[in-house]
Amino acid sequence: MKINYVLATSMLAIFSSGALAEDATLEEVQVQAAQEKPGLNLKKKNSTASRLGLTAQETPASVEILDAQTIRQRGDISIREAATRTTGITDISNPGSGQAFSSRGFTGNNAVAQAEDGIRLATGASTQTYPSDAWGYERIEVLRGPASVLFGDGAAGGIINSIRKQANRESSFEALLGAGTRGAYRAGVGGTGAIGEIGAFRIDASALGGNGFIDRGDYDSQKIMTSLLFTPTDHLRIGFTLDHANESPTANYGSPLVDGKIRHYLRKANYNIDNNKMEFTDTRARAKVEWDISPTAQIRNESYFFKSYREWRNLEVYDYNETTRLVDRTDYLNLRHDMKQYGNRVDFILSEDIFGHQNRFLIGWDSTHTDFRHSGSRNFSAVDSSLPLANFDPGTGFDPLQRNYDAQITQNAFYLENAWNATQDLKLIIGLRKDYIDTENKSLRADRPSSVQEFTPLTWRVGAVFNLTPDTVLYGQSSRGTDPIANLLGLSLVNSTYDLTRSRQAEIGIKQSLGNHKAEWTLAAYHIAKDDIITRDPSRPLNSIQGGSQSSRGIEFATTLYPVDHWRLDFNATLLNARFDELSEGNSGISRAGNTPENVPEKVANAWVYYQQTQWEAGIGARYIGKRYGNNANEVSMAGYTVYDASAAWHISKQLSLRANVRNLTDKFYSAYAYSDTQQTIGTPRQLELTAEFRY
After folding, report:
1. 516: phi > 0 → left, psi -120 to 50 → alpha, else beta; which?
2. Mean pLDDT across the stretch 469-497?
3. What are 168-210's pLDDT values in tens digits?
4. C-alpha dihedral over 119, 127, 526, 427, to 10 degrees?
5. Which fold has domain 5-695?
6. Which string of DSSP letters, residue by residue, matches 124-163?
7. In sequence order, what are the beta bridge partners of 642?
8. Distance in angstroms (rounded) separating the CA atoms of residues 529 and 527
9. What is the spatial distance between Cα 502 and Cα 531, in angstroms, rounded to a whole number?
10. What number is the average pLDDT over the span 511-516?
11. Euclidean distance between CA atoms 298 and 363, whole angstroms
């Protein structure tokens, strides 16, 4: 079902015009305040690293807040583009995983979680597809390192939390219209205003698309986000959201390696079948109640329903045969996911002094249930084929879908968090979570057994923050997390016999905000170890067992500087040593100890320099990704690369700005991701986009 944007835009215009007409009868009031400068936002409260209302500076963890203004200035369109400019986060998305990330040496949706407004999104068969488009979001919050205490299993590397714009009784309207190279287009509208005496609404809608840079690489997406907020009293807030999104990304499975390397002349080649398909549809509804029982006590309750429908039809693996000089194509997959997620989370927060010192305490219960149906087919003989490197007929593929299995997860979690100011300068923070996870995988095929498994992990975090000065803090923490060895909604009979992997992290760091908003900077050092990953039995290499381990050690630095008037510098860098400490692979049990996990760069850096005047602004940025490997054997490598981007805007008035964005300014040719030992995804070439931005 496609969204009727004409109707959505008309409704928005009616609401906005009515609100503006009402405001026109009021007397003019002028309010002047110093404009808040974008940066690391160390003194802003965040909801990702803590649910106690702590700021990033008060939290003994690496947390970063990326605001919408910065995202717009950099020209980022998607959540993943924006998030991967934060410290140490890299994009490892592929058509099967949807959107996926690497953080602190750990990769994929079973290790780096994603959420929207603090609600964790269930992962079906290792796939996440929402949220995608960054339009309608106020900021992105990133917590690096184990996040299991707040978000459960599957977050050893961290979590990326997209925070949406809120309904407000003060009327406002914004719109964007853009066009770019290779048929790219983008449009978005958003507005908020009052409803009656106690209500407010917000609507955000967007659409984008284009031809893509590979042959037959068309893509498009549309979404609408709606929210209502009612405040019957000063102490009670009731909110509702209802969203719907459709997305058809480019089905880009990469280019075959020729003599072990990607080739520039194959940059646009697409070896997928002609009738390929990739469609994602997501619908989400939520209701939230916040009640301030007293000045020191609050109850929050949030209920939600998510529904995802996904479908793929692709021929996915390409191997260049040096003998025949043809590209051998295999792994035709025709898949469908039907997923529904129900949940409720309730928190009780209490702020009471203990021994004369401020103490904030939270206790909560999170209950969620997910139903997942996996349908698909594999008919290799029907479409497996070999093609020349160029000038070929891609052919078509089709095989009727068959139901493979039904899976469900019921998860209940009890958690608590406490922050106590032991002294004026020392804050002690603890967190504890106990999960009760019941999984059931019911096979709908005779050749696939069913499975049932229960998990009851206990995770925790202990940390301290010490104020050297009001603007400088030292912190340290120790934490524990868990990850599944495979996606819990797709556990086979063999995988269901394994327990969750266990991760542990130690981290120390310093955070500082310099006076007069001149600078913010953070420095962190950490060590993470994950135990009980799958390896081969040393005495019987044909058998897989739990017992392997991997670890990472790293240093992360991030800063925002305002050295002189009109100038701003954003910079972050990560140095990482990620390795397998114990891992054997293959039927002969070959050791991978000391090797780097695939698709993990050990050097990452981002930089942006801005110059801003009242009437115009300009910026140039660079993204550096170090060398990576295409497999755990480290036999296939991908060279490091640097991509430059640029942006310039002309502010014609307070209501209208024109902006130009250039991505991959130098048209760098590079490998973005290793899809298999024999193929890699080539990075996007240079793109130009012109946009008009409206604000009222």
Report:
1. left
2. 83
3. 999 999 999 999 999 999 999 999 999 999 999 999 999 999 9
4. 0
5. Maltoporin; Chain A (2.40.170)
6. BTTBB--S-B-TTEEEEEEEES--HHHH-SS-SSEEEEEE
7. 624
8. 7
9. 5
10. 88
11. 11
